[in-house]
Design goal:
The protein is mostly helical. Among the domains are: 25-141 and 228-349, Serine Threonine Protein Phosphatase 5, Tetratricopeptide repeat (Alpha Horseshoe), CATH 1.25.40; 369-425, Orthogonal Bundle (Arc Repressor Mutant, subunit A), CATH 1.10.10.10. The protein is 71% helix and 0% strand. It contains 25 helices and no strands. It has helices spanning 25-38, 42-54, 64-78, 82-94, 96-99, 102-119, 122-139, 145-159, 162-177, 185-198, 202-214, 216-223, 229-239, 243-259, 264-278, 281-290, 294-309, 316-332, 335-347, 352-357, 362-365, 369-379, 384-391, 395-409, 414-425. α1 (25-38) packs antiparallel against α2. Bound molecules: zinc ion (ZN) (2 copies). One zinc ion binds at residues 19, 24, 26-27, 57, 59-60, 62, 64.
């Protein structure tokens, strides 16, 4: 099952905190915590990390309990106990020990970005990552930069800004080459596969996906970090008829889930992946109920819509699932995914009620030149102030034009506007009867 792929030695989470002095009590416990995590014994790993936080070493003279706290936060994010993770990150960040040390402020900020990403707050995640990376650069702390680069590679890709996503994936490659401490091996690999797929490098993406699911180490790392990853890889492989590698990945994932029956995020990921493999609608519905990760949940709603609409000219039920998926993606700031789902919605002859909600594009033609320019910049993610600066207008004038744009185009928020605009921009508004989504990187 492992095939010819060499299992990487590097670790998803840090092996040792920088306070690996021989006399550090905390580092000793953390080493054991990491070793458990590494072998897929997640609850034991978390219990040990909690012990490490409380160990109160006081011998090594370094902030070892902060490192233990950051590691515990990442473990909790990994199994999507996001509220707990957010609590812990906030407490660490506010502690005097951290506030007195700018390098630690940088590290806790970057971990905060990771928490926000898992919570589906992409705007927050990106802002924290940028802030953390700036501080890290100023203080010469490179150990945690991979966390920030991973967050930004993900948020830019999901927003549909492939150019920025390429920039951050190049940064991640640099982090890997320089073997920076906190490099998340599995998650970075998945980010790069997603980016290849988005950039129309599907053959390359398929080859990499086969490699990831063919490696038990990678599969395990993805399951303990990203509930959406294994289903995503399985979906990609099935789409090109690679049932063998997809099935092998699912079988190994099922074993890991059985060893961790109380870890819900893994259970949901495995159920979702198996449902895709077996084309099992009932399992997909159960996966939709069990996923707590917002992006993973949106993706299974989309899968249900695809399954329900297959071979149908009309499916109000599928349209309902697509609408829920689109709302969820839009809410997160995952505009690229939202616009793909919008294409799917247009592609099925849904009920008149939901068809009415697919906005006509005629509103765009009614925009004045200024309104058009404002709409375009705002859709690229610029704030009103940034738009104002670019157009040599006041912020209030921009806000005024934007309100007119919303009215004319029939949208309620800048996110909705951006979804619609990006779709027009990429020419993805297909004929209503064309069930195939037209956006790049769409699924079938
Ligand atoms: Zn390890
Ligand atoms: Zn210590």
């Amino acid at each position: 099952m492992v095939g010819h792929v060499r299992e990487p030695d590097a670790c998803e989470e840090p092996t040792l905190p920088p306070c690996v002095a021989l006399d550090c009590v905390t580092a000793g416990i953390l080493t054991r915590a990491h070793e458990r995590w590494h072998h897929g014994r997640l609850r034991e790993a978390i219990a040990l990390a909690e012990q490490a936080v409380e160990a109160d070493c006081g011998r090594c003279g370094r902030p070892c309990s902060v490192y233990a706290g950051l590691l515990l936060t990442l473990f909790l994010v990994g199994i999507r106990h996001v509220d707990e993770a957010a609590d812990l990150q906030r407490r660490l960040h506010a502690s005097p020990e951290v506030q007195d040390d700018l390098q630690l402020v940088a590290s806790t900020t970057l971990v905060g970005a990771k928490v926000a990403l898992a919570a589906g707050d992409y705007a927050d995640a990106a802002a924290l990552a940028e802030q953390g990376l700036r501080l890290a650069a100023e203080t010469g702390q490179t150990a945690w930069t991979p966390v920030g680069n991973l967050v930004l590679a993900t948020t830019t890709l999901r927003r549909g800004d492939l150019c920025a996503a390429l920039h951050y994936s190049a940064k991640l490659e640099e982090d890997a080459v320089f073997a920076r401490e906190m490099f998340p091996v599995g998650q970075s690999a998945w980010a790069i596969v997603q980016l290849s797929e988005a950039g129309k490098g599907r053959d390359k993406a398929v080859a990499l996906a086969r490699e990831l699911l063919g490696s038990q180490t990678f599969t395990r790392r993805l399951l303990v970090a990203e509930p959406a990853a294994v289903p995503w890889l399985v979906r990609l492989l099935l789409r090109v008829g690679e049932r063998g590698p997809a099935g092998a990945g699912v079988r190994f994932a099922e074993r890991l889930a059985a060893e961790n029956p109380d870890v819900d995020s893994i259970g949901a990921a495995v159920l979702h992946a198996a449902a895709l493999l077996e084309d099992d609608l009932d399992k997909l519905r159960r996966a939709a109920e069990s996923h707590t990760d917002p992006w993973a949940r949106a993706s299974v709603l989309e899968d249900i819509g695809v399954r329900l609409s297959a071979g149908q000219d009309e499916s109000p039920e599928a349209a309902g699932y697509f609408e829920r998926a689109m709302r969820a993606y839009t809410h997160m700031g995952s505009l690229r995914d939202a616009s793909r789902v919008m294409s799917r919605l247009r592609g099925i002859n849904a009920s008149p009620r939901s068809r009415g909600r697919c906005r006509p594009r005629s509103g765009i033609q009614g925009l004045t030149d200024t309104e058009y320019a404002v709409a375009k910049l705002v859709s690229q993610g610029l704030t009103n102030s940034e738009t104002a600066e670019q157009m040599f207008l006041s912020r209030h004038t921009v806000a005024f034009h934007l309100r007119r744009v919303f009215q004319k185009v029939g949208v309620k928020s800048r996110l909705e506007l951006a979804v619609m605009w990006n779709e027009l921009d990429t020419g993805s508004v297909g004929p209503a009867a064309d069930a195939a989504p037209v956006l790049s990187g769409s699924r079938t």
